[in-house]
């Protein structure tokens, strides 16, 4: 019996040493690899050459909004999400941010400290939550915020703006805040989480004024980024690259 | 075992005594085994039918028995009745498994069932996901289709391989003659042979195949070739006489499927179809079960092992993932991945390819392998039961010794002799050579002047051929010598005279005497002599000289050689003038008071390569047993000359003779060798046979019937041996089937033997078996290497799934990607290992022990799975984490992200640098990860391939470049990986993406580490044999 245990003990010891060595080796190589990385920008950004679009609030059920304008419970989740989301856009949070020149790329590559441009909530007009704490959900004019994914170093060309089109006419009238759904160039480029800590990505609020015709109907809406040649909005495989589709159904 | 023996006896007919004995045995057996089974019943049936007494009956009794008439034959109506009763005169093919069943068997055998389960799960999850409207649902559909395709393709491959091995019955049915000349309704008719019925009167002539078992009633110079049935190569004459109790020996029965060589005969059909002797042997051969080959057992063992690992890990992680609150559907998908990662899909096909490569190599060395698995069986052979004639010997009589001038001379018996070295200066030799040359009716076929003498075709019997070639070698053009010594009279050899005589003019123009030359059985020749030639002078034959003759005769006979005596007489010129008319009928010339000149002895000498081959077998731990129908003395002589009985060993009889004590008093254990007579064997119990096989290292079975081979084979198999058997006759086929590997002779073998065998020896040479053994052992070693190589990366494929489940990182490698490794990059390298040369002299070790030396043992599995496999996984994970980190996802951010990462709805997934990713962008990165993981495994598999070249020796000793195919493997591996990555990188369904070039090198240090580690392992194994390390690390 003793021989057997000694035999097994040796095996155990062997694997302990063997795996210990492998673990150390793994840790060491990973450490070496991480040393080669910059903490500011990733080594490669070729897998995200063009940004995706996303909306807020984002319903759990696959980008479909279902609510009853007269039942505040039915949309309270959306409202809370929007409120939370816009929290960081409050003026109090933007004290360090500066006012930048509109319509121009804000290149700070030479600057050691990257400044963030101020995004005024008032630009979102009726969707800013200031005038209507319910973001229009109770009035039948629900607001959806469209944002573009952050990508380090991305400099949009032209005049990028968001345009949303319902699948069927006459059910909904769409208003944009800021006007035309413009995304100002001064918010670009982004310099990354560590260098650009206070950065706020520009938002476009889309107000969906649902007509009586559209009430109780399921309205499919697709938003795209337009006006910029280097922002793709049509990719067969990536349904969120420069575009986003969602559905809204409001009951009374 | 007793039961099997009764099978044999029922076919082996040695007269009624045997039959009686078997009956008693079967009676005993019934008491032992009340249940009984089909096989025994069949054996009894066979036995009953063998109570054949037709050979004893007179013609009229036969007419009575079969209700036929010799003059008129059967009536058509009666024939039709009998045909309806007995069925057609054809062998019933064995109940063949339907092709579709065979095919389906391949579809569910081996790993297939696991992969079907995987495919089934894939389709189920496809169905569920489709119903849920998940975008990626189709991935599962494709995966299921791919898995099914893999199974179907490998199944078709295996089925095709199996279909190639031919069925034994095929050749039996080929032997059926097409037409037979039958007397029916008093008319001669040509009928298809399968229409023959018992009682039909058939006529046969030279060249015909006998259409059924026939009792002959009229013959004219009829001879039949029974070689396919009994193995006797000399044509047997046939007559109407009842000459032997045993139906097989009697002259008045001709057997189905044998050939009529010459003459004509008429006979009554007494047995048709399956009831013929050959039909019974055929049913016996198919009744002998096909044992599983050792390699099949090994592969089965391996499949169970791998499947066991796959299922237990799969189930374990299924439980883990369910208890980690993964969805059941997800857990099922994990299960599929684990199964696919664990199953070496390409391995079974690789093994088949490796075996067939070896088979090809063996075919070049004259071993034609019919059943691929037999390639390895030959390597694990521990006993070879070899025929003598033609296998160990050259199968031609050759002059081996001469006796003249009171002295024995040895002649060269090698295959390619061109001169004879013995002293030819004596005038006695001149006289002897003249007799040998002239008293010979054999002639070379014309037009062979350019061939070596030994290869020329001769018309004449075996002894005369030997003498003709012998004299041609020494004297040169024999035909012109004969022409110069014109033959004037001749008495050919016959069995009553036992001599051959001819009278010639001499080539000396001054000598007008006639020369009478005579040869024959030595004692008969000596009787006719009054003088004997010593150094060219005739001296009176006194008792002293007769004594010397006797001694020489006994000595040559004792060497198992066929001895002929030669004498001559110059006829006095006065009594026999030139014009004398010799009359051979009245013998108007002297045939006594001749001058004895000398003796020549002949033997079928061993092939020159055989002694070497036998000693190779000996050092390889293979016991060579000679099984021959020949006389024990000849058999023993040949066994001694080829080393089957080594020079120093003695049989019981030898010891008895040496010590001058009775055989019974000899201690049997002292005798290493044994010569067992077939007659003794017949009376032996299986225990006695076992004792002989166990106690004696060197055994010769002489005077054995081909059927007794089966008993010997079974005896050897009872010792736990893997038995190879050679054979050529039809009735060898049961033994060939029963043997672990049956070896048929390509030249001398009958079709049935070739069909029953697993291997055909194209040159009938024993030495070829030994080269086959060598190849077989090599392939076993190399398959070990192949399997070790293949199993290793399974861990590197499996770990990603396990870590994915436990740590919830993005999936490191896809199921389809795994299939590309298993069935793409790894295939050629694993076949390349089949070309690896042996590490050491594989013919210097004992045969593999079937029970102990497994193909896949614990050490192999542990070393591949838990050591090299884990190292590969580490290397691949480093690459994986590097790819993700350099794209913005540091390792810390990857942990636990699985749900969000894979969510379709999240399209702003944040990386470590604050960037946001859409779902598709993440998936694309994931595929890049797959590709990186794939490339890393490939790179490390190159190292794995190199280290697998040897199991003990350093790679540098084995030579890195000696096996060029390995390099083909390495380049193909990298080439395929390059094509997949860069060529097919844009085909989304395959989940490959173009990869930055530097990622190919991340795993290189790990590949080098694998190599270094394995060199250290081998070094320690070599340095410390028998140590703890050796026991655990050597596979």
Number of H/I helices of chain A: 2
Q: How much is the radius of gyration of chain A in Å?
A: 25 Å
* Share in helix of chain B: 40-55%
Question: Biggest sheet of chain B, in brief?
Answer: 9 strands, mixed
Largest interface: A-B, 49 and 40 residues
How many E-type strands of chain A?
8
Proportion of residues in extended strands of chain B: 5-15%
What is the structural class of chain B? alpha+beta
Radius of gyration of chain B: 37 Å
Write out the strand line-up for the largest beta sheet of chain A, numbering strands in chain order.
Answer: 1-3-6-5
The percent range for helix content of chain A is: 10-25%
Low-confidence spans of chain B: pLDDT under 50, at least 5 residues? 1-49, 165-173
Distance between the termini of chain A: 81 Å
| Global outline of chain A | globular
Indicate the proportion of strand residues of chain A: 15-25%
Write up what this structure looks like.
- The complex is a heterodimer of chains A (252) and B (1035).
- Chain A has helices at 2-35, 72-87, and strands at residues 53-56, 64-68, 143-148, 161-166, 172-177, 203-210, 218-226, 243-251.
- By secondary structure, chain A is α+β, with helices and mostly antiparallel strands.
- Chain A has a four-stranded antiparallel sheet with strand order 1-3-6-5.
- Chain A is globular.
- Chain A starts with a helix and ends with a strand.
- Chain B is of the alpha+beta class and 1035 residues long.
- Chain B is 49% helix and 15% strand.
- Chain B has 39 helices and 28 strands.
- In chain B, strands 10, 11, 14, 15, 16, 17, 18, 19 and 20 form a nine-stranded mixed sheet that branches. Chain B has an eight-stranded mixed sheet with strand order 8-26-25-24-9-21-23-22, with helices on both faces. In chain B, strands 1, 2, 3, 4, 5, 6 and 7 form a seven-stranded antiparallel sheet that branches.
- In chain B, helix 1 packs antiparallel against helix 2, helix 1 (2-11) runs parallel beside helix 3 and helix 12 runs antiparallel to helix 13 (328-342).
- Chain B starts with a helix and ends with a helix.
- The chains are: A alpha+beta (252), B alpha+beta (1035).
């Amino acid at each position: 019996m003793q021989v057997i245990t000694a035999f097994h003990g040796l095996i155990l010891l062997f694997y302990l040493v063997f795996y210990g060595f492998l673990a150390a080796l793994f840790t060491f190589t990973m450490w070496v690899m991480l040393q080669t990385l910059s903490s500011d920008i990733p080594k490669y950004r070729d897998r995200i050459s063009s940004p995706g679009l996303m909306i807020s609030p984002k319903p759990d059920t696959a980008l479909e909004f279902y609510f009853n304008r007269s039942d505040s419970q039915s949309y309270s989740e959306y409202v809370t999400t929007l409120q939370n989301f816009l929290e960081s856009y409050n003026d109090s949070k933007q004290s360090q941010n500066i006012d930048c020149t509109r319509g121009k790329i804000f290149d700070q590559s030479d600057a050691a400290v990257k400044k963030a441009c101020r995004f005024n909530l008032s630009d979102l007009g009726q969707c800013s939550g200031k005038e209507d704490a319910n973001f229009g959900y109770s009035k039948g004019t629900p607001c959806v915020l469209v944002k573009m994914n952050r990508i380090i170093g991305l400099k949009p060309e032209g005049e990028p703006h968001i345009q949303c089109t319902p699948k069927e006419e006459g059910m909904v009238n769409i208003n944009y805040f800021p006007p035309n759904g413009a995304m100002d160039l001064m918010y670009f480029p982004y310099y990354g989480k560590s260098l650009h800590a206070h950065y706020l990505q520009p938002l476009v609020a889309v107000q969906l004024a649902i007509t009586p015709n559209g009430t109780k109907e399921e309205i499919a809406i697709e938003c795209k980024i337009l006006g910029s040649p280097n922002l793709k909005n049509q990719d067969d495989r990536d349904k969120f690259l420069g575009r986003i589709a969602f559905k809204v159904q409001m009951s009374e | 075992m007793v039961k099997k023996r009764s099978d044999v006896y029922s076919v082996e007919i040695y007269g009624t005594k045997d039959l009686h004995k078997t009956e008693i045995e079967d009676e005993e057996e019934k008491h032992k085994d009340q249940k009984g089974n089909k096989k025994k019943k069949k054996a009894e049936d066979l036995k009953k039918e063998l109570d054949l007494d037709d050979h004893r009956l007179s013609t009229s009794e036969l007419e009575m028995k079969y209700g036929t008439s010799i003059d008129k034959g059967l009536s058509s109506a009666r024939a039709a009745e009998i045909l309806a009763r007995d069925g057609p005169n054809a062998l019933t093919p064995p109940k063949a498994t339907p092709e579709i069943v065979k095919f389906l068997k391949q579809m569910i055998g081996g790993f297939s069932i696991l992969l079907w389960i995987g495919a089934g799960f894939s389709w189920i999850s496809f169905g569920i996901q489709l119903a849920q409207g998940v975008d990626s649902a189709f991935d599962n559909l494709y995966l299921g289709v791919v898995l099914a395709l893999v199974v179907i393709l490998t199944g078709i491959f295996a089925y095709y391989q199996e279909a190639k091995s031919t069925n034994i019955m095929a050749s039996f049915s080929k032997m059926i003659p097409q037409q037979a000349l039958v007397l029916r309704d008093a008319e001669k008719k040509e009928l298809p042979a399968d229409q023959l019925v018992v009682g039909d009167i058939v006529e046969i002539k030279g060249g015909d195949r006998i259409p059924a078992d026939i009792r002959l009633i009229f013959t004219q110079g009829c001879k039949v070739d029974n070689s396919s049935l009994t193995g006797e190569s000399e044509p047997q004459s046939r007559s109407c006489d009842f000459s032997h109790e045993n139906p097989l020996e009697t002259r008045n029965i001709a057997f189905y499927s044998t050939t009529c060589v010459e003459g004509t005969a008429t006979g009554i059909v007494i047995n048709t179809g399956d009831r013929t002797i050959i039909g019974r042997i055929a049913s016996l051969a198919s009744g002998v079960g096909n044992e599983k080959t050792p390699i099949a057992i090994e592969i089965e063992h391996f499949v169970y092992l791998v499947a066991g690992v796959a299922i237990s890990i799969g189930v374990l992680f299924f439980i883990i993932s369910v208890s980690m609150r993964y969805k059941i559907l997800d857990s099922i998908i994990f299960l599929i991945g684990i199964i696919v990662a664990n199953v070496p899909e390409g391995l079974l096909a690789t093994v088949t390819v490796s075996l067939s490569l070896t088979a090809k190599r063996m075919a070049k060395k004259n071993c034609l392998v019919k059943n691929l698995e037999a390639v390895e069986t030959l390597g694990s052979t521990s006993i070879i039961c070899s025929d003598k004639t033609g296998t160990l010997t050259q199968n031609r009589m050759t002059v081996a010794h001469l006796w003249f001038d009171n002295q024995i001379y040895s002649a060269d018996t090698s295959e390619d002799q061109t001169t004879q070295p013995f002293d030819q200066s004596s005038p006695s030799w001149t006289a002897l050579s003249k007799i040998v040359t002239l008293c010979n009716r054999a002639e070379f076929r014309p037009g062979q002047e350019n061939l070596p003498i030994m290869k020329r075709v001769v018309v004449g019997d075996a002894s005369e051929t030997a003498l003709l070639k012998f004299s041609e070698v020494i004297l040169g053009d024999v035909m012109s010598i004969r022409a110069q010594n014109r033959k004037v009279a001749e008495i050919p050899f016959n069995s009553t005279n036992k001599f051959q005589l001819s009278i010639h003019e001499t080539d000396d123009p001054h000598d007008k005497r006639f020369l009478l030359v005579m040869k024959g059985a030595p004692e008969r020749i000596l009787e006719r002599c009054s003088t004997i030639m010593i150094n060219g002078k005739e001296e009176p034959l006194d008792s002293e000289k007769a004594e010397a003759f006797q001694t020489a005769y006994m000595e040559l006979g004792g060497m198992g050689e066929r001895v002929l005596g030669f004498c001559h007489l110059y006829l006095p010129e006065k009594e026999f003038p030139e014009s004398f008319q010799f009359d051979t009928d009245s013998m108007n010339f002297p045939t006594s008071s001749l001058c004895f000149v000398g003796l020549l002895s002949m033997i079928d000498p061993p092939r020159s390569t055989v002694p070497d081959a036998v000693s190779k077998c000996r050092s390889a731990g293979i016991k060579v047993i000679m099984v021959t129908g020949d006389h024990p003395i000849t058999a023993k002589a040949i066994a001694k000359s080829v080393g089957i009985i080594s020079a120093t060993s003695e049989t019981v009889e030898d010891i008895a003779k040496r010590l001058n004590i009775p055989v019974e008093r000899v201690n049997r254990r002292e005798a290493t060798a044994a010569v067992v007579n077939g007659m003794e064997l017949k009376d032996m119990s299986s225990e006695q046979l076992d004792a002989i096989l166990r106690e004696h290292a060197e055994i010769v079975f002489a005077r054995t019937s081909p059927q007794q081979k089966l008993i010997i084979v079974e005896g050897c198999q009872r010792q736990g041996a893997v038995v190879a058997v050679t054979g050529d006759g039809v009735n060898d086929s049961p033994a060939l089937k029963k043997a672990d590997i049956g070896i048929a002779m390509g030249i001398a073998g009958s079709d049935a033997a070739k069909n029953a065998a697993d291997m055909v020896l194209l040159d009938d040479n024993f030495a070829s078996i030994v080269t086959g053994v060598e190849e077989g052992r090599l392939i076993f070693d190399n398959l070990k290497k192949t399997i070790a190589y293949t199993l290793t990366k399974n861990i590197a494929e499996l770990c990603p799934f396990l870590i994915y489940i436990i740590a919830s990182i993005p999936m490191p490698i896809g199921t389809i990607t795994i299939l590309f490794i298993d069935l793409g990059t790894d295939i050629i390298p694993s076949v390349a290992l089949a070309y690896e040369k042996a590490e050491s002299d594989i013919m210097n070790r004992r045969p593999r022990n079937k029970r102990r030396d497994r193909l896949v043992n614990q050490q192999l599995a542990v070393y591949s799975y838990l050591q090299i496999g884990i190292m590969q996984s580490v290397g691949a994970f480093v690459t994986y984490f590097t790819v993700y980190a350099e794209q913005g996802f540091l390792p810390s951010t990857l942990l636990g992200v699985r749900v969000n990462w894979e969510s379709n709805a999240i399209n702003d997934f944040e990386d470590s640098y604050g960037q946001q990713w859409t779902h598709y962008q993440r998936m694309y990165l994931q595929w890049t990860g797959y590709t990186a993981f794939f490339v890393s495994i490939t790179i490390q598999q190159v190292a794995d391939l190199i280290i697998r070249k040897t199991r003990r020796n350093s790679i540098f000793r084995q030579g890195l470049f000696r096996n060029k195919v390995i390099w083909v493997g390495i380049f193909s591996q990298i080439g395929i990986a390059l094509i997949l990555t860069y060529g097919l990188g844009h085909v989304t369904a395959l989940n490959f993406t173009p990869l930055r070039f530097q990622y190919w090198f991340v795993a290189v240090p790990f590949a080098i580490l694998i190599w270094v580690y394995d060199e250290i392992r081998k070094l320690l194994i070599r340095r410390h044999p028998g140590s703890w390390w050796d026991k655990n690390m050597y596979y």
